[in-house]
Amino acid sequence: MLNHIVLMGRLTRDPELRRTGSGVAVASFTLAVDRDYTAQGQEKETDFVDIVAWRNTAEFVSKYFAKGRMAVVTGRLQIRNWQDKEGNKRRSAEVVADNVYFGDSKRDGASGGFDQSQSYGAQSFNQSYQAPAAPATSANDFAMLMDDDPELPF
What we know:
Blueprint: E1 5-11, E2 16-19, E3 25-34, E4 46-54, H1 55-64, E5 70-83, E6 89-102, E7 119-120, E8 123-124
Parallel strand pairs: 4-6
Antiparallel strand pairs: 1-3, 1-5, 2-3, 3-4, 5-6, 7-8
């Protein structure tokens, strides 16, 4: 049997970090996931998927993710049965996250994109990259191979 889900979408709100009675971290958040297909003449539809992350994954999500951030979540689908305040039986579907990855680059405030002027080491991203020059070769650098050479592996 297989129960494996991979989702990519944007957080609709900041993750909510809580702790169980024994101190285990649990974070919950919702991903807005666009559907891949659109009926002709229709607007693209979006699904809102509830996600639950536990322990280190919960702490990671609550520390590094916020509303609007793109996330890739891998995990499993879980169906929970519960009762509401009036005693009605309810059913909820949620994804229990095994891993959460960044789906975009770190945002730079208002522009919402990656800050390309940020410098890393000696070269910044807004400079063009130049490949190192290939060493000069001449016809004398090569030797003809003989078919009966005992050093050949084939």
